[in-house]
């Protein structure tokens, strides 16, 4: 399986906004913002599928099946829900007893923000983006993944469970 390495996406984003001479082109700034979002998206899916299917099973079709089961809309909706003071009844019984902590909440907020920035970068031709916009998106994505990694195993597992197995 050809899993996208999130670190490579970050490296690509950094290169896109640091041309050898002059300012980066608009297309490069926009691609850098998109790459920052995709780094966090793929890192999250890898964490989930590695946990539930297993790192050693990356060459198995069930790994690919689980990987492809996550979509952008559900990730966004889950992250928006986690940011609320009170989880919906639909999610509450699957969350940690005290709810999601600051690390997961910060991660969730960054995912939503970065997805919105990616949509703007990919589709909104009426705005001009610059190197600092992309640098901020890259830094936000890296910080969010750090917050996710700092969260307790219980918090991460609860989030990843909901991501892969949305309650009906």
Unreliable parts: none
Helix content: 55-70%
User: Number of helical runs?
Assistant: 8
Q: Describe the sheet with the most strands.
A: none
Straight-line distance between termini: 30 Å
**Helix-strand string:** HHHHHHHH
Structural class of the secondary structure composition?
mainly alpha
Rounded mean pLDDT is 96
General shape: globular
Structural Rg: 17 Å
**Proportion of residues in extended strands:** under 5%
> How many beta-strand elements?
0
Textual characterization of the structure:
- With 168 residues, this protein is an all-alpha fold.
- The chain is built from 8 helices and no strands.
- 31% of the residues are buried.
- The model has no long low-confidence stretch (mean pLDDT 96).
């Amino acid at each position: 399986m050809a899993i996208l390495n999130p670190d490579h996406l970050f490296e690509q984003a950094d290169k896109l906004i640091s041309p050898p001479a002059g300012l980066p082109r608009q297309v490069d700034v926009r691609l850098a913002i998109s790459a920052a979002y995709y780094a966090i998206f793929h890192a999250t899916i890898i964490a989930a599928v590695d946990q539930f299917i297993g790192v050693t099973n990356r060459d198995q079709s069930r790994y690919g099946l689980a990987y492809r089961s996550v979509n952008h809309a559900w990730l966004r909706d889950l992250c928006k829900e986690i940011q609320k003071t009170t989880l919906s009844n639909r999610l509450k019984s699957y969350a940690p007893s005290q709810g999601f902590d600051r690390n997961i909440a910060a991660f969730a907020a960054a995912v939503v923000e970065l997805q919105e920035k990616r949509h703007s970068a990919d589709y909104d031709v009426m705005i001009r983006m610059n190197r600092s916009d992309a640098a901020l998106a890259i830094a936000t994505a890296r910080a969010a993944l750090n917050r996710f990694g700092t969260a307790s195993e219980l918090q991460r597992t609860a989030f990843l469970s909901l991501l892969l197995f949305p309650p009906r």
